Automatic annotation (TrEMBL):
<feature type="transmembrane region" description="Helical">
    <location>
        <begin position="92"/>
        <end position="118"/>
    </location>
</feature>
<dbReference type="InterPro" id="IPR035906">
    <property type="entry name" value="MetI-like_sf"/>
</dbReference>
<feature type="transmembrane region" description="Helical">
    <location>
        <begin position="256"/>
        <end position="278"/>
    </location>
</feature>
<keyword id="KW-1133">Transmembrane helix</keyword>
<dbReference type="GO" id="GO:0015416">
    <property type="term" value="F:ABC-type phosphonate transporter activity"/>
</dbReference>
<dbReference type="Pfam" id="PF00528">
    <property type="entry name" value="BPD_transp_1"/>
</dbReference>
<feature type="transmembrane region" description="Helical">
    <location>
        <begin position="20"/>
        <end position="38"/>
    </location>
</feature>
<dbReference type="InterPro" id="IPR000515">
    <property type="entry name" value="MetI-like"/>
</dbReference>
<dbReference type="InterPro" id="IPR005769">
    <property type="entry name" value="PhnE/PtxC"/>
</dbReference>
<comment type="similarity">
    <text>Belongs to the binding-protein-dependent transport system permease family.</text>
</comment>
<keyword id="KW-0472">Membrane</keyword>
<keyword id="KW-0812">Transmembrane</keyword>
<dbReference type="GO" id="GO:0005886">
    <property type="term" value="C:plasma membrane"/>
</dbReference>
<keyword id="KW-0813">Transport</keyword>
<keyword id="KW-1003">Cell membrane</keyword>
<feature type="transmembrane region" description="Helical">
    <location>
        <begin position="130"/>
        <end position="152"/>
    </location>
</feature>
<feature type="transmembrane region" description="Helical">
    <location>
        <begin position="158"/>
        <end position="178"/>
    </location>
</feature>
Length: 288
């Protein structure tokens, strides 16, 4: 860097307003909130029984055959639940969990498209986008657990998980779709308009090519999240491996807990890796 440029940078830095008090106040506020949060937590509920449960789960997770010398039936449990294609076995339940995530993400991504267009300021205007944006915000405020409990009353089993995931996905996917739609290059649309292109042609050749890669990337990212959501929803009876996991935890059946975790963790890691790879490829194709 040349001397003049260096002195200009130094002068700009020295003349920059100092906001030490603002930083100190912000730090005090954050620290006070953290201290208040710790005070609200009852650490007295932690006891030796809780530590014993965690210790047993970790012990069986590291070595599912741990209790073989005391319980000869332990290996039979593991073979029954991990190396079987029965409806109660881990392979079947993991496939069901993934299918719930796929179908829920697909429905959520499709339904999010009209929501996003209706809520985009450059499509429907400032006033027109308000209603759709408010509805999306309302959907996002409801936790997926609540959607799961609601849909279990309507339709139990795996279908409740699909519906809960699809509705909860609309909030996040629509919000990301809106950001993409509002960033489209309007110059292409103006050029097509000058050639006398119809509305359908402008959508087909001007809008869709700009949105496809970003929409797919968003849906893939949400699917990655929904695989974990599908496993959690099983704990409230919405299908998947979560129901077996919570049932095993409730009965202190630690070998089954360990087997379920060994089924969930590798699958989730593999899907996260695949999702990252696919989204990077889509980003490269969008730039090229």
């Amino acid at each position: 860097m040349q001397p003049n440029a260096s002195s200009a940078v130094l002068e700009t830095y020295e003349n920059a307003p100092r906001k030490y008090w603002a930083k100190i106040i912000a730090f005090v506020i954050v620290f006070s909130l953290a201290a208040w949060s710790f005070d609200a937590i009852n650490f007295g509920g932690i006891n030796n029984v809780g530590f014993s449960v965690v210790r047993n789960i970790l012990r069986y997770f590291v070595n599912p055959n741990y209790k073989m010398k005391f319980d000869p039936e332990a290996i039979n449990y593991i073979q029954k639940y991990f190396f079987s294609w029965e409806r109660y076995a881990v392979p079947y339940l993991m496939v069901e969990t993934i299918m719930i995530a796929i179908l829920g993400t697909f429905l959520g991504a499709i339904i999010s498209i009209p929501f996003a267009f209706l809520s985009s300021k450059n499509i429907t205007g400032e006033k027109g986008s308000w209603f759709g944006a408010t509805l999306i915000t309302m959907i996002r405020t409801v936790p997926i657990f609540v959607w799961g409990i609601v849909f279990i009353r309507v339709q139990g089993g795996a279908m409740a998980g699909v519906l809960a995931i699809s509705v909860s996905s609309i909030g996040m996917i629509s919000k990301l779709y809106i950001e993409v739609i509002e960033d489209i290059d309007t110059g292409i649309l103006e050029a097509l308009d000058s050639t006398g292109a119809t509305t359908f042609q402008k959508i087909r050749f001007g809008i869709i090519p700009q949105l496809t890669a970003s929409f797919l990337s968003t849906a893939i990212y949400r699917f990655e999240i929904n695989v974990k959501n599908a496993a959690i929803l099983g704990m409230v009876g919405a299908g998947g491996i979560g129901f077996t996991l919570i049932d095993a935890l409730g009965s202190f059946n630690f070998p089954i807990v360990a087997v379920c975790l060994w089924g969930i963790i590798p699958v989730v890691l593999a899907i996260e890796y695949l999702s990252t790879w696919l989204r990077s490829k889509l980003a490269q194709s969008e730039r090229s």
